[in-house]
Amino acid sequence: MKTDHTHTLTVGMAAAFICVILAAIMGWQLSSQHVQYDKQADYYAAEFAAKSDQEVMQSCSLTTGLYLVKCLRDELEAERDTKRSEADLAAQQKVAKWSLGVFVVSALSTGFTLAGLWFVLLNLREARKITAQSAHANSQAARAALAAHHSADEARFANKIASEAAERQLRAYVVLDSIEVEEMILNPSDIDILVFVNWKNAGQTPTRGLRWDINFCSFEDDIPNAFEFPNSSASPDFSSIGPGQISKDVSYFISSNEYESARLGFSNLYVWGWVEYSDAFVNTPRRRTEFCVRLDINNGPDGKGQVFRPHTVTKHNASDDDCLKKPTAVA
User: Fold this and answer.
1) Which has more pLDDT, 225 or 21?
2) What's the pTM?
3) What are the backbone angles phi and psi of residue 313, rounded to the nearest 5°?
């Protein structure tokens, strides 16, 4: 496209140069003819004047007196009329010659004007082509930028999914592993119960800022629907659990009176608690796990001793967003 434009421009410049040369040649030729015509006119005018004087003298040589004066006057008037006609003819010839020159100049001016218009149209066409190419390039650049933006969004989305998947796979998951109950016989009439709540980190990274709380209560019937599962009076315990490890150092006392009432079937004994922790990842929320069980007390197989069976209830058994209460903001 650029080669075609260069070729067209070269042809146009060559045509303009030829027109200039032709105009110069025609102007020089017209000027030469004008000079030649002027010389010829001067020559013929002098020759005509000389001949006119001779003809006047010959025509009036045979007359005398008043007739001579009249003859000379008539001949001079005739000669003046002839000269006036010749001057008019010479003026008309000059006007015709200048008219031809004006016509040639006008023709050349028209040619130059048309050439100029042709160059203007050529530039306009090239400008439109360049504008169209620029618009196409801008459109392609906009499409490329949009595609790059989409690619970046997809990459960020894929990275987010990969990060979330890695976080879900590697984060700490603290769950209730087991509840162990042991009798602590102080004397035959005074038996306390030790309850061990074992937490396990089922994830692949350690916990940070882990804390927990355990509490219990007896009810004659099932646990009330409006029960709010309060914390114990003791301060929450703090610790850390590594991946796959189990905490076995948590024990709580249940008095012998509550134990005996539950063993005889007069009440139901409930134990509940929660654990809160942060995982190893940055800018992740606090985690929480809640549990609540009813301790069913049965006689042993031989009729001696007691068997404690934790029975999970519906409420206060969940993790993270499904928990009944929100975790505290402790790192």
Assistant:
1) 225
2) 0.54
3) -100, 175
